[in-house]
Design brief:
This protein is α+β, with helices and mostly antiparallel strands. Helices cover about 25% and strands about 25% of the residues.
Length: about 160
Amino acid sequence: MRTDRQPDSTPPATGLEPDVRSARPAGRWEFTDADELPALRRSVTEAAGRSAVLNADGHADAATHHNLALVTTELATNALKYGVKPGVVRLHRLPAGWLVDVADGRADQAPRPQAPVPGRPGGNGLLIVSMLSVRWGWYVDSNSTPRKHVWAELADS
């Protein structure tokens, strides 16, 4: 878990897309409402379990799957709150971790991390993403209808 980074500024959209050449698709889900988030979380956890590397005890790492589901839910919540529906989650298995990519139809608005405020409900989603991921970023795709993608890479524990 990375705790040395504070998301005090918006990461620049450099067109840097995550490298998926060595990734295996593990799932794709569309969502349009917050009521769908618990099912999305379960689906991501189940997909991660099917694509997991087992540890020495012969079990998948539950903490990694929990963090993956949490990061996915945080990014999906932001897409619902600040984006244009529908949102799309794509999950990929990397050689040593996971890539989650959440897209929404609001390509003109960058993700805006907020500094943590004790006692404030909400507003910590990108801080959580930053702390649990190896790296994260965003880009706008070049399709005829541009979409904003916010992505995060998580390492296996």
